[in-house]
Amino acid sequence: MPSPIFRTLLFLAALCAGPAHALTVEVAAPDELKPLLDQYLEAARAARLGETLDEAELARLRGVSEDTARELLATEGYFSPQIDSSLTRSENDWVMRFAVTPGPRTRVRTLKIDFAGALVDADGAGARLRARAERNFTLQPPMPFRQADWTAAKVALLGPLLTMRYPAAQLAASEARIDPAAQAADLKLTVDSGPAFFYGEPAISGNQRYAESIIRNLSPLKPGQPYRQQDLLDYQAALEASGYFAQATVRIEPDPALAAAVPIQVAVVERPEKLFSVGVGISTDTGARVSASWMHRNILDRGLRLKLDARVETERQTGGAELAWPRNASGYENSLGFQLKQEDIEGQETRAAVLAAKRTRTRGEIETTLSLQYQTEEQEIGDVVSASNQALTANYAWTQRTIGRAFYPRRGYVLTLQGGGASEALLSDTSFVRLYGRHTQYFRAGDNGRLILRGEFGSVLAQTREGIPTDFLFRAGGDNSVRGYAYQSLGRTLEGGVESVRYLATGSVEYHHFFEGNWGMAVFVDAGDAADSPGALSPAFGYGVGARYRSPVGPINLDLAYGEATDEFRLHFSLGVSF
To answer: What CATH number belongs to 199-270?
Structure first.
């Protein structure tokens, strides 16, 4: 507890300092500058804190705030402001006023960018990179000079170099000369690109269970290839998508001494060799479901993956096994699979056995799959259709994705093209050629919206539909087709069910708007049909609204759609959880 002498000294000091007063600060300035001054002036900050101040401190705050106001205005390009301040008594408190006239704004008069390093002598791609870097400089004559814009422009100038060939690039010098009399700024920069970087060999760490060759073969990079930041991101994504690794980091050390063959630093966290998982879910297409799978990722210690899985849904049941090889040095992934399935959808009952060999390759945004598949099938539709079908088909699929890995992309597209066929001379009941294409385009629509356009078309060229397994034919309707109609309910209507046919055409226009957080709404129009000839296609329309939720594990969609042809409303919903 303070002594009586100490309390007396404090009281005398307070008397000497004079009475303390509360403070109100008023700033008169143009609308675009007033928030900046209100936030950062020392006097305004003291007023917000409700401090009681003596006259000496008030005078100090007044002078300091004037100096701060000049510094703040300079960052906005006003180097000759007029600032008038006053301090007046209002009853028992004080009011400090600042009247700010910013004066003419300084604008960029000249801009000069010099380059040093390997980029100076580079031709072709190097010249284009210099031009791109200069275009990326966002502070150009005669734009207003702001300190924040100046800083951002310097960062943007280095961006193209750091991501393409020159990861050691830096600003060797930068200068902004201000001419207050002319209200002009002359900007000058020197960019040192450093040396061009080229890839060396991977330096791998973290792998114990899986062979180093798996990591090397997943790399899209070759020694001697010029550095590109996107290459490292693609390599990292390939490692994480391979199934062997829970986490991967791919980077380089931008040391100029290593530029000729910079090591690629690859660090991985491995997944367990064996995994058992179960899942539950529900969708309005195929009903409630439960699933179970077991995987061994390192058969024979060679990285072969064996997966056994089973899935039971209300209207479909499947079970199968797949043996997959890790990606080879040429970038191909091979697999063998066997599947049994049974389904009863819209009265069309099928039981099928499928044996397939596949070869898949992913290069950047493009994935291709070549497969050879043998399928036998038993099909029934009421008392009208009872058939046994078989086909040995060769198939090719080509997919391009420009949307990255976003759950809710707002730009880009996904395009899928497929072609395949069978011959009666080779274990098939009917000769046919199957063609299919689907395109989904995403557009940004304002700050919180997106527009989605989708279209698909399928055709089976054959003398007859008889003998073709249903997997190679078409029906429409359902969550990802024409909403407002039951799953695969649009096709050839028979007594007892809906039969798959040879032609398909669907389209959709959909708009999403997201509110604060992860919730959003949707409006859409779908149309489509499936028939046995192009002339018989008669689009059925569906209209609706929906709710969207961006969950951490993926999108959840709930739609209410009206089917014009059936004059009925239908709910479309899907949700699944894996353990």
So the answer is: 3.10.20.310
